[in-house]
């Protein structure tokens, strides 16, 4: 039977209202409306616009009868109470009871998840984590966070903060991420790789991907990856260092949680060839052999559609 759902994806740059359906374990996205977050600086105005855009989608598809709404949003938030709690990328979104507001408007259940958890559910149900009982999804994008599926259920912890592996310190110093120098996020995120590249460039100018001191500020994970894929030794060294630290971080998750699958998105998905060799070398040295042999490490499968499917997956929990 076709089950209709609404999804709201709330980001610091853009928001999207999605109408979709699930049948026999497969999602189909019927329609989508995207708008800039900055166009609605008040959270209540933004929520009102979500409602308006959702109602437009429902008029376009009169056969749709959504059974629930799923919301994917950056944390911190209280998923149990349905409240958004001051995310750093959403200034002014302080103690916003979004589920209560939308439930009154649409008269259907509304569920809220942080974006890493939502993406974990999406990859678990419909992507590279399908069929796993114990898995983690790592964002490896602008930052690094994890969503955890344990014993066939989303695990969010006692206050919704489970999976914040980016905060783990891997070294006493190093690139900063999650407010902490030398953190897992500092070494394994788009911003962290850019920091590693800037540190390397300052010591080795000129480079093919950074010729002058003025170019250092323009370095990105993408520009380093392009140079690495062209065979540049310095760029390869930067990605090797990130891959090495990824191995250390993953070994902690594997030993602690005995996962059968780890799905990694964004930068890893695009640059697996640059990260995997050192990651695997370190894992063989650091992780318990039996636990490592039971765990597959794979790139995310849902690509650019993951945000849409993630929000709809929350509705289908």
What would the average pLDDT be, to the nearest integer? 94
Assembly context of the chains: single chain
User: Class by helix and strand content?
Assistant: alpha/beta
Task: Give the uncertain stretches in residue-range form.
Answer: none
Which percent range describes the beta-strand content? 15-25%
Q: Give the SSE order as H and E letters.
A: EEEHEEEHEHEEEEEHHHHEHHEH
Radius of gyration: 20 Å
Largest beta-sheet characterization: 5 strands, mixed
**What is the tally of helical segments?**
10
Terminal-residue CA separation: 17 Å
Strands, count: 14
Q: Helical residue percent?
A: 40-55%
Précis, in short:
Helix content is 40%, strand content 21%. The chain is α/β, with parallel strands linked by helices and 317 residues long. It is globular and about 60 Å long.
Describe the fold and architecture.
With 317 residues, the protein is an alpha/beta fold. The chain has ten helices and 14 strands. It has helices at 43-60, 98-106, 115-126, 184-187, 190-204, 221-229, 233-257, 266-286, 289-293, 306-315, and strands at 3-10, 14-23, 26-36, 69-73, 77-78, 83-84, 110-114, 135-138, 146-150, 153-155, 176-177, 180-181, 261-264, 296-299. A five-stranded mixed beta sheet has the order 3-2-1-4-7, sandwiched between helices. A hairpin with a 7-residue loop joins strand 8 and strand 9. The longest helix has 25 residues, at 233-257. The chain starts with a strand and ends with a helix. The relative contact order is 0.14. The model has no long low-confidence stretch (mean pLDDT 94).
């Amino acid at each position: 039977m076709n089950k209709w759902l609404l999804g709201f994806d709330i980001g610091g740059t853009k928001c999207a209202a999605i109408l979709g359906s699930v049948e026999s374990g497969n999602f189909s996205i019927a329609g989508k409306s995207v708008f800039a977050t900055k166009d609605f600086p008040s959270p209540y105005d933004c929520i009102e616009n979500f409602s308006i855009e959702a109602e437009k989608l429902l008029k376009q598809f009169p056969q749709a009868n959504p059974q629930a709404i799923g919301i994917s949003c950056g944390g911190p938030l209280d998923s149990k109470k349905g409240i958004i709690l001051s995310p750093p990328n959403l200034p002014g979104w302080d103690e916003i009871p979004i589920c209560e507001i939308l439930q009154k408007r649409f008269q259907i259940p509304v569920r809220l998840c942080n974006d890493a958890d939502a993406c974990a559910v999406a990859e678990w149900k419909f992507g590279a984590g399908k069929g796993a009982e114990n898995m983690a999804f790592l964002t490896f994008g602008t930052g690094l966070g994890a969503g955890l599926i344990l014993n066939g259920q989303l695990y969010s912890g006692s206050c919704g903060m489970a999976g914040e592996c980016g905060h783990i310190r891997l070294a006493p110093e190093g690139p900063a991420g999650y407010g902490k120098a030398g953190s897992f996020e500092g070494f394994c995120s788009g911003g962290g790789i850019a920091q590693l590249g800037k540190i390397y460039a300052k010591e080795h100018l000129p480079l093919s991907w950074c010729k002058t001191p003025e170019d250092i500020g323009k370095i990105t994970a993408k520009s380093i990856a392009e140079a690495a894929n062209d065979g540049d030794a310095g760029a390869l060294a930067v990605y090797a260092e990130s891959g090495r630290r990824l191995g250390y971080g993953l070994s902690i998750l594997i030993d602690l949680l005995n996962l059968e699958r780890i799905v990694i998105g964004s930068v890893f998905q695009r640059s697996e060839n640059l990260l995997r060799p050192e990651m695997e070398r370190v894992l063989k040295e650091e992780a318990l052999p039996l636990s490592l042999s039971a765990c597959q490490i794979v790139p995310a499968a849902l690509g650019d559609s993951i945000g849409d499917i993630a929000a709809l997956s929350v509705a289908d929990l």
